[in-house]
Design a protein that fits this description.
Low-confidence stretches of chain A: 1-15, 387-392
Structural class of chain A: mainly alpha
CATH superfamily of chain B: P-loop containing nucleotide triphosphate hydrolases
Shape of chain B: globular
Oligomer: heterodimer
Distance between the termini of chain A: 37 Å
Mean pLDDT of chain B: 92
Number of domains of chain B: 1
CATH topology of chain B: Rossmann fold
Number of domains of chain A: 2
Mean pLDDT of chain A: 86
Number of strands of chain B: 10
Shape of chain A: globular
Number of helices of chain B: 10
CATH class of chain B: Alpha Beta
Number of strands of chain A: 6
Bound molecules: adenosine-5'-triphosphate, magnesium ion
Order of helices and strands of chain B: EEEHEEHEHHHHEHEHEEHH
Order of helices and strands of chain A: HHHHHHHEEHEEEHHHHEHHHH
Radius of gyration of chain B: 17 Å
Chain lengths: 392, 237
């Protein structure tokens, strides 16, 4: 081989290795994505596409808030995928339906609270009970799925539990369909009002049907306000969803890193047999994992239903695959990865369409396009490590 | 009654018969070694004792209680603790967390703390690396960690699968010396070793395995001088 040939080859390899070096580092990768986004915005504002209006900071801020709320729901669901994957190296494709079960049972709880008058007299308690029932229901469904569909196949080839997972997903959907019908049910209005002395500032926006102001409506309210020069439409529920999800994620982190059973869970995730040799009951850890995933998904389900105000047996599907996408984005099996992946996906799919001058109906295309890109360029996800080093 | 009594044990991997009719005992306070060439069934024996590989037939008694049908964590809770072949350190857990995992089934937190100090005293290297992920340790340090982790369980019966594997000779001596010291303090040890020479030096008794069978057994001092053993396992005439 002549020196010229080798030089040529080196030159050809250079850009590829620069790209791969870039995507090896999560921080650089994220900065690169953000820079790319900004570049596209700039480009779009210079060459306005099909007469679309310029992209405004207010719009960005509004969408960012919504994207974070939506993304925190994805994150809550994504954690369930990632926890189960970390322990069993399998994708629990019934997880979207586990989420749905929580939202649906939460519906029964909140309707009961409405009928008994608890919702009106003590909305905070009623919401707390709803959330709790949603979380517990999802956890119960998750444990049942593990017992019935996965445990008997623990040592089967990896394709087999994948198939039963899809079976479990369809079965759950059908069970809810048969039990409760296909119709969409509406979550009741809650009316959790805080800060009554904010009324003067709210003006007419704070008035209800009867012309009374009871304060800021945390669940159903929407307020047009101007903050540091930005015209925003604030839905307090978005902040509530974000804050609650964050609290649950912190609780999960503390459990995994600060408790003895969390340590056992990490040990089982690394090496099931060796953990068993230390006296860890592996089956119990696996059940705990499904319970945790279920609790988070159930909370996500209730929060999702609270701001969409509706449930049906089919609502698990799309958030389920979106959250799966988020888990893969962040690096499946990686807990911070799932949290970040969820928020990232929520923000990108809300912000990107209008930023790029596209129809917001394309947000799913963007979400799954992102998944495809990650699978091609960084299959281990943004925070994931290369598998061989994990098992090594 | 011996601490461990194994009778007519059979184990298979699907169609492969790995153990055929194994019987042996380990007395309280002994060091017993199990030697044999590659694939003889030593690791399988330890894993069957721990419940990781199911026993097809036969019995395993720990202080008289039958344990062959118990799940691995129940056996570990009864004090049968294995330091497995290839160390099997939890690579992402810190050194400290690895040691704490060793004490997983213990409830006597104060004694655990004392034993942690004891293990760190025995292996000072580990103290320097307490908060480092287990996977970043060198091979020898990982072996110390694996033994330390097993000690944290306060084992009644310590099973060691090739603790000298991959270690420099000077480390091997260290490890074996610490095993003798442990045994002097009352720990019963069943030691599987490739390094038959060293194993026979420190053991009281030995069993020799070949293709799933125990072919020789007896006093370690005697086996050390047995011409057949010397030829087959001690490398030389
Ligand atoms: N998981 C498995 N599946 C199938 N066969 C196995 C499995 N593990 C071990 N074997 C077989 O069982 C036999 C005994 O293996 P074992 O690991 O117990 O040997 P060993 O004496 O520990 O050998 P070494 O000194 O090489 O560690 C071997 O023939 C091996 O190929
Ligand atoms: Mg072996």
């Amino acid at each position: 081989m002549t020196p010229i040939q080798t030089q040529e080859m080196r030159a050809r390899r250079q850009p590829a290795s620069a790209l791969s070096r870039l995507i090896r580092n999560p921080v650089q990768l994220i900065s690169a994505i953000i820079l790319l986004g900004l570049f596209l915005v700039a480009l779009r504002n210079v060459l306005p596409l099909n007469g679309a209006a310029e992209y405004q900071p207010d719009q960005f801020a509004r969408q960012l808030i919504f994207g974070l709320a939506q993304g925190s729901i994805y994150a809550l669901i994504a954690l369930g995928y990632t926890l189960v994957y970390g322990i069993l190296s399998m994708i629990n494709f019934a997880h979207g339906e586990i989420f749905m079960a929580g939202a649906y049972m939460g519906f029964f709880a909140i309707t009961a609270a409405q009928e008994t008058g608890l919702l009106a007299s003590d909305p905070v308690l009623a919401l707390f009970i709803t959330l709790l029932i949603g979380m517990l229901s999802s956890a119960v469904v998750a444990v049942l799925v593990e017992r019935i569909a996965y445990r008997p196949l623990r040592n089967a080839p990896r394709l087999v539990p994948l198939i039963t997972a899809i079976g479990a997903s369809i079965a759950l959907q059908q069970i809810f369909l048969r039990l409760f019908g296909a119709s969409t049910r509406r979550y009741p209005d809650v009316g959790w009002f805080v800060l009554p002395n904010a009324c003067p500032a709210l003006g007419t926006q704070g008035l209800d049907d009867t012309g009374l102001c009871r304060g800021i409506d945390l669940i159903g309210g929407r307020y047009d306000v101007t903050v540091i020069g930005l015209e925003l439409r604030i839905l307090p529920i978005h902040f509530l969803v974000f804050a609650l999800s964050l609290a649950l994620m912190i609780a999960l982190w503390l459990y995994v890193h600060r408790t003895k059973s969390g340590k056992a869970m990490r040990a089982v995730a690394e090496d099931r047999n060796t953990a068993a040799l230390m006296g860890v009951n592996v089956d119990r850890v696996i059940v705990t994992t499904f319970i945790l995933g279920g609790l988070l998904a159930g909370a996500g389900g209730v929060l999702y239903a609270l701001y969409n105000q509706q449930v049906s047996p089919f609502i698990g599907f799309l958030p389920g695959i979106k959250a799966f996408t988020a888990a893969v984005l962040g690096g499946i099996g990686n807990i911070p990865g799932a949290m970040f992946g969820g928020l990232f996906l929520g923000v990108v799919e809300t912000v990107a369409p209008s930023m790029l001058g596209l129809s917001s109906q394309l947000k799913d295309v963007i979400a799954f396009g992102l998944l495809v890109m990650v699978l091609i360029f960084r299959p281990q996800g943004i925070f994931g490590e290369v598998l061989s080093s994990k098992r090594g | 009654m011996s601490l461990l009594e194994v009778e007519h044990l059979h184990a298979t991997y699907e169609t492969i018969v790995a153990l055929r009719d194994i019987s042996f005992v380990v007395g309280q306070g002994e060091i017993v070694t199990l030697i044999g060439s590659n694939g003889a069934g030593k690791t399988t024996t330890l894993n069957t004792l721990c419940g990781l590989t199911p026993a097809r037939s036969g019995s395993i008694r720990l202080a008289g209680e039958r344990i062959e049908a118990l799940p691995p964590h129940e056996i570990a809770r009864r004090g049968v603790i294995q330091s497995p072949e290839g160390r099997k350190i939890f690579a992402r857990l810190s050194v400290l967390e690895n040691l704490e995992m060793g004490a997983f089934s213990r409830r006597d937190n104060r004694a655990v703390k004392r034993d942690l100090e004891d293990v760190l005293g025995r292996f000072p290297r580990l103290r320097e690396r307490l908060h480092q992920p287990g996977g970043t340790l060198s091979g020898g340090e990982q072996q110390m960690l694996a033994i330390g982790r097993a000690l944290m369980a306060k084992p009644r019966l310590l099973l060691l699968d090739e603790p000298s594997m991959g270690l420099a000779p000077i480390f091997v001596r260290d490890v074996f010396e610490s095993l003798v010291a442990l045994n002097k303090q009352g720990t019963t040890i069943l030691l599987v070793e490739q390094n038959a020479h060293m194993a026979l030096m420190i053991a009281h008794r030995a069993y020799v395995m070949q293709t799933g069978l125990i072919t020789h057994s007896g006093d370690a001092k005697v086996l050390r001088k047995d011409p057949a053993i010397i030829r087959a396992y001690l490398g030389g005439a």
